[in-house]
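agent> fetching stored inputs for the magnesium ion docking request
agent> found them:
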Amino acid sequence: MCFLEKVLNLHLNLYYLGKKSMNSIQLKDKEFELYIPEREIKGAIERVAREIERDVAGTNPLFVGILNGAFMFIADLMYYLNGPYELTFARYASYHGTGSTGELKEIMPIKSDIKGRSLILLEDIIDSGFTMKCVMQKLKNEGVADIKLATMLWKPDAMQYDIKPDYVGLEISNDFIVGYGLDYDELGRAYRDIYKIKEDNHK
Ligand code: IMP
Ligand code: MG
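agent> prediction call returned; pasting tokens
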């Protein structure tokens, strides 16, 4: 590490030390406790950016940010990339009927021409895998050449559908979380740390 890097690192450490994370938050009827601090999230996203860049160097992929939950991940990931990359957005909602296969609703389709393109989907979290399974199948049917999936978070123990993300920020336990874009009933997206639901909420 050169002198300049050491100075910058010291500044970064002081910056994070100066920030106050709340140990717990209340959203409506549920209490959440601090789970993943901002610094760890950003470090993971920067690593994912390096991995993607190593793989796509010299090609022209189309990044597709999946709204709403991934908005912070999308911004950070694009910030850490260094290239003339194209970014577009889409929005889906999934409904998991009890015992049914569920249903995917397209709220905002991709506006760019995706035929023959290599896509990199940017998703906030993979839980059962239902949403990404449906979205990837749908895009394949629309004639894309190749799809890769980058997710900020992955709950491997919650998987029910057969998909495997190509890039993963952090693997987490099978608990409900909020913050860094993720919500509980539309609340909690703006927190810069990630919070996990408190155990006693389950009782
Ligand atoms: P899946 O279809 O079961 O994989 O769920 C994916 C979607 O559900 C994600 O894109 C999120 O929007 C939402 N989701 C899954 N787990 C959580 C969570 O722990 N907190 C908030 N939203 C979640
Ligand atoms: Mg989502």
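agent> quick read of the result: The mean pLDDT is 92.
agent> awaiting further instructions
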